[in-house]
Each structure stands twice: as structure tokens, then as C-alpha cells.
# Entry
Amino acid sequence: MTCPPGDDQPPPPEGDHQPPQPENSGRRGRKPLGISEAAGPSHRAWLEPVRSHVFSSGLTLNDLVDRSGYSKARISELLRGNGYYPAWEITFSVIRALGLPVRPMRRLWTAAAREAHKKPEWIRNCIQQVASEPEIPPLAHRAFTEKMHAPYTAYARAFLLTDNRVRWAVGETFDLLWLSWNTVASSANLRRNAWLLLRSRVLARAAYRDGHPDLRAAVFSTEEVSDSVPGHLVVLTEMVDLFDAITRLPQDHMDVIVLGHLCGLDLEETIPYVTGLSPAIAHAIDHHARAALEDLLDSPRE
# Structure
């Protein structure tokens, strides 16, 4: 029994999205079209690496038809994120044809199905149509996850606030890393590439104000704004202005300030390790960020 398409249309995209991975201009066949604007952030999150694997493999749509058993029109629709959100059966067939791990992809597919307002029964029925063997992440990936889980979670919480949204963004990051682990692990700076991925997944779901991430709500989770502190309203106003200024910094500057001053990470070792920056660059960024914050706070807001 094939899982039928649901009745719900995918929602419009939210937040800022990272551009699709570069497409291999030397591959055979016609250059594929871009991802549909209708694809939401979770849908796009798994679709971009799948497309990247297709392009880098040199496979054509005809090759995927032969390997998956689905028509060219269906596969083309899946790779563009067009039409109904794809059932797990065809998604599974495509990733198996590409040799991608199933377990992280199934979690990513499920999260995007929920984002597309698919009912739990539809999701469960789709997954039950496909038998798959248990998979264990590569040992290096498991070690990386253990080391980065706490700092990644702290950063995500500063922007996303609720536990469910934080777990979603961090879990999505680790699953995307697993999906492309062989490529990512062989890169010149694994920790830097992983950090940029984490940042993109967090900021794709963050609230925005005037084109910048909105950190103001994080003020209320700090100890300094307790009602029992004399002058707490003045402190509150000053901190709201500070947190607003932080998000107007360049992204690397914002990251270092958030990790150091909101999450309490050590600038000497922990922040460089987590972000993949050298200690010297991390210190220089922190210095320039502090000076820039003073200028922003002293400048009248238009």
C-alpha cells in the first residue's frame, strides 16, 4: 500500500534561509531548477543536502528513476519541493539510491511533515510503509554531538527560548551533519562548518525585528531583572537596549557576545573551540564587538 498524499499544502517559508548548495555545472543533463518558495525551513533543511548529493554524484533524473522506481516527474517534484509534501516512501527511495543514512533523514522528514501540517496518522502511516534497519551514527559524529550539545543548546535557547524549539534546531543540526558526515568530517574546519550550520538553523526560526534577530525576550530570563531588585525597571530598559544592540552586530561578533555574555562560555578556550575560530580571532572579535556595542548604545536610534 502506497501512502497517499495529504490534503494540506506546505506553509509559506519563515525567517531567513540559507541558499541552496552550489550545483555541479559539469554534470550531465539539463541544469535543475531551484527549490520552490513554498518549501518551509524544515523541508528546505533536508532538501538542500539531498540536492547537493544528487549534483555531486553526477546522477541524472533518469539514473534516479532507474534506481528508485519512481517517475521522472515525481522525482523532479520532490527535488524542487513542489506540490504536496512528499511521502516517506518516495523520499526513502531517493536517499537509498544516493546511499544516504536513513535514520537522520527520517527525523528530518518527520519534522518537515509536521511543519507542513501533516496529521500524525499520515506521518505514521507513511513511515510504516517502509522497512529499514537500525543505524548507528559514526563514532566521530557521536563524539562531536556529545561535546557540542551543551553549548549549541545554550546558544539556541538565547534566541528560541522554548525547549521544544531549541531541541528542534539543535537536533536538526546534528542530523544534517550526520547526513553529510563524510563530506563535513573531511573539511578543513569541521567545527567552523558545523557552527555555521547551527547558527543558520537557529536564526531560521528566530523572531525578527527590523531585519535583525530579536533577543529582547531573553532579557526576562536573566537574574538582573527580578522585581525584588531596586530600580529593576531601569535595569530592564537598559538590558533591552543592550540585547537589541547585540543583534545589530555582524554575525560573528553577535555569536561571540551571545556565547560569552549570555551563555557564560569561556573566551579563552571554549568559544574558539565551539565556533571553530582561532583564539586570537575570537579575542579580536570580542574586543571590536564591545566597542561597536558602545557606539550603538551611544548613538540615537532613528
